[in-house]
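Quick one, probably user error.
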């Protein structure tokens, strides 16, 4: 009997081809599995971050934390007195010299030891985008690190037990300036949402790499990095993946008329057709406005 001591060249090439084919089949599956794991971790992160606001509310009359200094005449947020990051996310101290909170970290840091970790989407990894390290930021003047999850500022003072109706208008570029919806035909276009968002996985290019403020509002959008969606945590601590209606590109202003943003989000506390109010109010709302929304407050 003749014994062969080695593979022939053809047999070796066949084996290499089979291995290459198997690698080609397995790599996409492994990549998808890794991304699913990152998506699950991201969902866990935003839920844990939302817990910090609820822990705070439990200690402070069941109301969500303040996000910026107040005006002395009526308690309206004073956007001129703060920059960079909201007080919930603050590390670099921007409080007034005589403010008792000046030497304390942001609210979230007082209720979770691992905020830098849970504030980061494992897929995005605080992508810097177009962000300039020389502008204001969450950490210091040399390192620009973003929070991937940001908070609608209008939720400051929200009681942690309220359950408003929440919906959004499908974006068509015509109704972003409407503060209160009174037209029944427009109200009938509203798309219900499962809860009141307290943290949103914000789109980096629109505009988390430009306004590094820890807040979500105005033209800010929801990311689409997870299966064309981003995670949202509600005030009641429920979390979900939200696939917002968008144009073909995650940039602005090219597809702005077709992109969902904070201006399209409405709430209703009374359950009647004429009591839908736009959540985003450009920083001109009183503490706790969201508990009883109305025009002029």
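Nope, works fine. Designed sequence:
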């Amino acid at each position: 009997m003749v014994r062969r001591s080695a593979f022939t060249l053809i047999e070796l090439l066949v084996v290499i081809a089979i291995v290459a084919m198997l690698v080609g089949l397995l790599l996409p599956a492994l990549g998808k599995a890794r991304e699913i794991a990152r998506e699950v971790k991201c969902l866990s992160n935003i839920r844990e971050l939302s817990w910090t606001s609820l822990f705070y509310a439990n200690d402070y009359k069941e109301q969500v934390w303040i996000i910026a200094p107040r005006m002395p005449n009526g308690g309206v947020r004073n956007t001129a007195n703060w920059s960079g990051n909201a007080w919930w996310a603050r590390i670099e101290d921007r409080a007034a010299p005589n403010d008792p909170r000046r030497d304390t970290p942001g609210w979230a840091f007082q209720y979770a030891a691992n905020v830098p970790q849970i504030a980061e989407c494992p897929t995005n990894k605080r992508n810097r985008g177009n962000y300039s390290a020389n502008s204001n930021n969450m950490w210091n003047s040399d390192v620009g690190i973003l929070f991937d999850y940001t908070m609608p500022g209008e939720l400051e003072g929200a009681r942690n037990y309220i359950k408003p109706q929440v919906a959004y208008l499908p974006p068509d570029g015509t109704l972003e300036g409407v503060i209160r919806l009174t037209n029944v035909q427009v109200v009938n276009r509203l798309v219900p949402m499962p809860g009141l968002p307290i943290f949103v996985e914000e789109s980096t290019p629109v505009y988390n790499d430009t306004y590094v403020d820890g807040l979500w509002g105005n033209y800010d959008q929801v990311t689409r990095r997870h299966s064309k969606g981003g995670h949202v945590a509600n005030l009641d601590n429920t979390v979900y993946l939200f696939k917002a209606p968008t144009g073909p590109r995650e940039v602005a202003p090219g597809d702005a008329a077709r992109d969902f943003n904070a201006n399209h989000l409405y709430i209703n506390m009374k359950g009647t057709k004429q009591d839908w109010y736009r959540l985003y109010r450009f920083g001109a709302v009183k503490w706790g406005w969201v508990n009883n929304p109305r025009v002029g407050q």
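The CA atoms of residues 129 and 204 lie 7 Å apart.
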